[in-house]
Amino acid sequence: MATIDASFASSRPARRTDWLGRAATFCYLAIAAGQLLFTAFILAFYYPSSLSGDFAAWNTKPLIKGFVAGDVSGNLFFAAHVLMAAVISFGGLVQLIPAIRGRWPAVHRWNGRVYLVSALTLSLGGLWLTWARGTWLTLTGAFGITLDAMLILTFAALAYRAARARRFALHRSWALRLFAVASAVWFMRVGYMAWGIATGGAGIGKAMDGPFDILLAFANSLVPLAVAELYLRASAHGTAAARKGVAALLGVSGLIILGGSAGAWMVMWGPYL
Ligand code: HEM
């Protein structure tokens, strides 16, 4: 999987039209398509039920622990979590559009603050749902999502600190890493679907405890992070061969993301609307 900050291409005009820039833009558009579908699902499925207090409606979709009668704090944490999920999914896409940063810096700054608050809320609230409410199927899955929360919190702090210090190149690097790991739960859904389409579900256990489940529990944050890192390095000082290699990786990632996102819509999101 991959992530892109289209701004890196635009901040280097001489190289904007090379294969790396084109592949980064393609990969961003694939991610945007998939995350817009995820956002649309959250807005259509979770917003009406959560905002009207009809929490029982969550359970029309398979969940580990959605609405539980009498569990007021658990239900409220869950409601806050799904409401913020749409904010971070849409907000991250907006942050990466270079034209918005260039033309409306105030929008970038305010959306950035909202993005950071949603990253903190989702990570800390998600940790509470996992460990205090006891929402997990396997311990491996719980540790995988915990690692993701730690990465989100760390990168959010580093991106914020660099922005405050007006070290914008550094800020963009940490922000891109943050985007990669903050998108992990979405990558996980897309990853399951892409793998299912390609292999028929090899290695997926009945209780989500197969080898593929264990791998994806950590790969959902570490693979996008690795791809983001390769992109950052190739675009900053990569050789021509390295830039082409990373461009190919971004191109393939974009195709996988498109397939996985279409599958996720057809299987995981669309049928519940
Ligand atoms: C940062 C981006 C995140 C987004 C966009 C997000 C999104 C969501 C969504 C949409 C759901 C509802 C389940 C569904 O319909 O698929 C959910 C549930 C949940 N999330 Fe997150 N989440 C994020 C981060 C986290 C983190 C970091 C953790 C844990 C540390 C976490 C833990 C949980 C738990 C435990 C549930 C309940 C699952 C269930 O009952 O089936 N989330 N999340």
What does this molecule look like?
- The chain has 273 residues and is mostly helical.
- The chain has one domain.
- Helices cover 77% and strands 0% of the residues.
- Mean pLDDT is 94; it is low at 1-15.
- The protein binds protoporphyrin IX containing FE (HEM).
- Protoporphyrin IX containing FE (HEM) binds at residues 42, 61, 63-66, 81-82, 85, 88-89, 122-123, 126-127, 129-130, 135, 145-146, 148-149, 152, 182, 185.
Structural features:
single chain, 273 residues, mainly alpha, 0% strand, disordered N terminus, binds protoporphyrin IX containing FE
Structural class: mainly alpha
Topology as a string of helices (H) and strands (E)? HHHHHHHHHH
What oligomeric state best describes the polypeptide chains here?
A: single chain
How much beta, percentage-wise? under 5%
Q: What's the total number of strands?
A: 0
Q: Compute the gyration radius: what is it?
A: 19 Å
**Bound small molecules, which ones?**
protoporphyrin IX containing FE
**Total DSSP helices:** 10
- How many strands, which pairing sense, and closed or not: the largest β-sheet? none
| Total discrete domains | 1
Low-confidence stretches: 1-15
Distance between the termini: 27 Å
Overall residue-averaged pLDDT value: 94
* Morphology: globular
Estimate percent helicity: over 70%
